[in-house]
Each structure stands twice: as structure tokens, then as C-alpha cells.
Amino acid sequence: MDKNLLITGGSRGIGAATAVLAASQGYRVCINYLSDHASAERICGQIREAGGYAIAVQADVSNEDEIIRLFSRVDSEMGRLTALVNNAGTVGEASRVDAMSEFRMLKIMMSNVVGPMLCSKHALLRMLPRHGGHGGSIVNVSSVAARLGSPGEYVDYAASKGALDTFTIGLAKEVAGEGVRVNAVRPGYIFTEFHALSGDPQRVSKLEPTIPMGRGGLADEVAEAILWLLSDKASYSTGSFIDLGGGR
Ligand code: NAP
User: Fold this and answer.
1) CA nearest 238: which of 132, 140, 121?
2) One Pfam family from the UniProt entry (predicted)?
3) Could you identify the atom of ligand 1 that is nearest to the CA of residue 222?
4) Does the active-site annotation cover 157?
5) Which residues have CB under 6 Å of ligand 1?
6) CATH no., domain 4-244
7) Three-class DSSP category at 223
8) What does the pLDDT look like over 173-229, one tens digit per residue?
């Protein structure tokens, strides 16, 4: 069976590492991004140089019209989707809840919860046998924040990942008998540009003493777990989570 993978937020960080590893394992990859066209094209170029297939498609996953356009590009340029990684996500500046705006909370929930739910919907329309599909695999990129709550930093973000975990469990059970597996990874502190969004690009290095393993994680280490969950090696796993938090 063809291995056609869509990764949301694949232009950098965990998504980019996942795209490169997936291509090396024979997936044809669609790299979605929000605004960083140059980085998305650079990752595509890296994959093509290694003999793989990749396209980059701009779309905001918090908007269903843009998601529909994104999936249409996958349909026409790659064929039927077999794998989805809901990786795109965002976070606001470190803050207490009593200082958070409605705008910020809605943006976090739209990007981190509604976006993955809508992308899953459009993936299911291609994967489920009732819609002419042949099954598939979805991996959601959650966070250890879903378990820990992130007090004083971004409780809104942690709550969005908690919702994503619940969505993972429910959807996994809903489609378990129809050939689609749904799982999630929960990374801890990973060295990516993500932490600049919360106001401190050096955040992971500074917090290393608080991590049981004593170091931050690498995007490649998260990508390995995502690829395992996507693959047939994880054929009996659905509704499950792999924590990549160095013991947190
Ligand atoms: P990152 O380096 O900031 O990359 C985020 C990616 O998401 C970029 O490709 C960005 O596109 C894209 N993106 C953001 N909002 C989007 C939207 N509305 N529509 C489409 N694409 C969007 O982040 P990362 O560290 O790799 O994080 C990836 C995932 O892991 C996120 O869900 C995050 O919550 C989760 N996570 C990260 C950590 C960590 O420590 N880094 C820990 C736990 C969980 P542009 O480049 O175009 O802006």
C-alpha cells in the first residue's frame, strides 16, 4: 500500500524531523506550514536530494476552508492519504491565567484542539472504508503539559493538550474497528524554536536541572516514536501514548 503522509507544522522542529525520518522510511510526505515558506521548502529540498518525495503546502490548521484546500492538494498531487501527524501547535507568552486574554485562549484552542480535530475529520474521509478508504494511522502531538498543567506558564496550552489527549482516546475507540489507529506522543522539553514563542529561547537549557535525565530532548527522538506509532509495527496500539519527557 502507498504510504502518503501529511504532517501539519512540518517546516521546523518536531514536524520537520518527522518529515525527514518518514521520507527515509518510504513515505511520500506533504509538509504543511503556517508562514515560514523558506523553511518548508528547505525541508522538502533535503528530502528530494535524498531521493524522497515531498511537497510543501501553506495552510492555517485553525481554519477549515484552508484545511480543505490543504487536503485537496494532497489528493491531487499524492493520492489517497494513509497517515496524518497532527503536529502544528502554538503557545503564548508565559503568563498566569488571570492575565490571559480571550483572544489568546481562543487562538490556542483553535490551533491546538480544533485544528487537529478538523484535520482528523478530513483524514477519516479518506481513510475509512465507509468513505472508500483502506485504513490509516493518525498520531497527535500532545505534551507532558497535559499531565502536569504548566502552572504560572501556560495553563491554557496544557489544557489544550489535555483536550487533545481525550480526543485521541475517544476517536481511537470510535474507529478502532474500521482500520484506523489513533495514538499520541507527549514530548517534554525539546530543543526547538517553539520556546521563543513563550518568551525564552533558552528555556530548555535553563530547565535541564529539573529534568530527571538531566537534559532536554531532541526533535529526532520524538520523530522516532511518531514513526513507530504510524507504522505497522504498532499494529495493536490505538488510543495509546508515548511520553518523551526524559522522566518528567
Ligand atoms: P515549532 O518549532 O514552533 O514549530 C511549529 C510548527 O507548527 C511550525 O511548522 C509552524 O509553521 C506550525 N504551525 C503553528 N501554528 C500553525 C497553524 N495554525 N497552522 C499550520 N501550521 C502551524 O514547534 P515544535 O517544538 O516543533 O512543536 C511541534 C508540536 O510539539 C506542537 O504541537 C507543540 O505543542 C508540541 N510540543 C513541543 C514541545 C517542545 O518542547 N518543543 C514539547 C511538547 C509538545 P511556521 O513555521 O510556518 O510558523
Assistant:
1) 140
2) adh_short_C2
3) 30
4) yes
5) 8-15, 32-36, 39, 60-62, 87-90, 111, 115, 141, 143, 187, 189-190, 192-194
6) 3.40.50.720
7) helix
8) 999 999 999 999 999 999 999 999 888 999 999 999 999 999 999 999 999 999 999
